[in-house]
Amino acid sequence: MKPDRITLRQIRMPLVHFFETSFGRTYTRDIILVEVQSGGASGWGEVTAGENPFYNEEWTGSAWTILHDYAAPRVLGKELASANDVYSLTAHIRGHNMARGALETAVWDLEACLAGAPLWRQIGGGARREIPCGVSIGIQDSVEQLFEKIETELAAGYQRIKIKIKPGWDIDVVRRVRERFPSIKLMADANSAYTLADAAHLKQLDDFYLMMIEQPLSHDDIIDHAELQAQLSTPICLDECIRTPRHAEQAIKLRACGIINIKLGRVAGFRQAKRVHDIAQAAGIPVWCGGMLEAGIGRAHNIALATLPNFVLPGDVSASKRYWKRDIVCPPVETTVRGTIEIREQAGFGYELDRDFIQSITAREESIG
Predict the structure, then answer these.
(1) CATH code linked to domain 5-116+354-368
(2) Is the whole-model pTM more than 0.90?
(3) Which of 162, 164, 166, 274 is labelled catalytic?
(4) Which of 1.20.1250.20, 3.30.460.10, 3.90.380.10, 3.20.20.120 is the CATH number of 122-342?
(5) Catalytic site residue 203?
(6) Which one from 263, 274, 321, 325 is the annotated catalytic residue?
(7) 70-102: per-residue pLDDT in tens?
């Protein structure tokens, strides 16, 4: 492959319902789409960064600059033996994994399209024909509203429920959820809302037989998580602090977690995600695919990733209609009554683009090359 044109598009999509975490509410997503062209074919990627630098240091505005000024020029016009080469070409850019990952995943999609193969096969996946799905439910205005959300998702067949927690919305809420739903697979995600000083408080969550507590401490911490995990019987799942395969190795060595959440953008794309997967698998640590309120392209990439063998826990990959009145892919991503998504055989990421809709919601667009 030799990428001869890279096009950036920033789209704006309102969510069906607000999504709240410990660092705020989101009502509308501003998403950058990356199209890489070569030999008359196109591959597409999606920047998973939020609108503000709250999950990590990246946001939509920074991602546009990094892609336009730094990452895209380093890939444009280069002869690529495979999509694996993209990471090395941008590796000297410190951080900004979500911007770099969108470019890398677009090249993987391009490679799959040129090969006439589904993306999941191109990355070495295919361990399962359908992936188990869970949902992430944000902080609600009331516990009763949370109950309604959970009931809706269980009725739709989802296999695991994740609820967001923060100080003041944690122990009592989880207790009430567990009392109402005694047998569901339940986990709590803190998005770095606590410190090690809260260990005794967090230990109360051991009473509710949760699958895991996700990233309770600082977004860049591994050591304190190791100390906290030693005090809890509930497995800690690490998310924000696992940005590289090396971080995964360190966390496992320190026994800082029992589970790892892999997000494509957070680790800079498929190449690094596969390495984290392999490290965890070798250590007997299960992984699952996390979500970042993706539109259809990012959602399809997550489906491909989740076909790797160690993705044994239900991920946050769910149906398009949970977030969007209209998605940017056709057909929209759908789940089965079993709470799974069946993988598709079409070349590339497996779905058609709704180009007219994409054009109608594009706020800015620029091509390089």
Answers:
(1) 3.30.390.10
(2) yes
(3) 164
(4) 3.20.20.120
(5) no
(6) 263
(7) 999 999 999 999 999 999 999 999 999 999 999
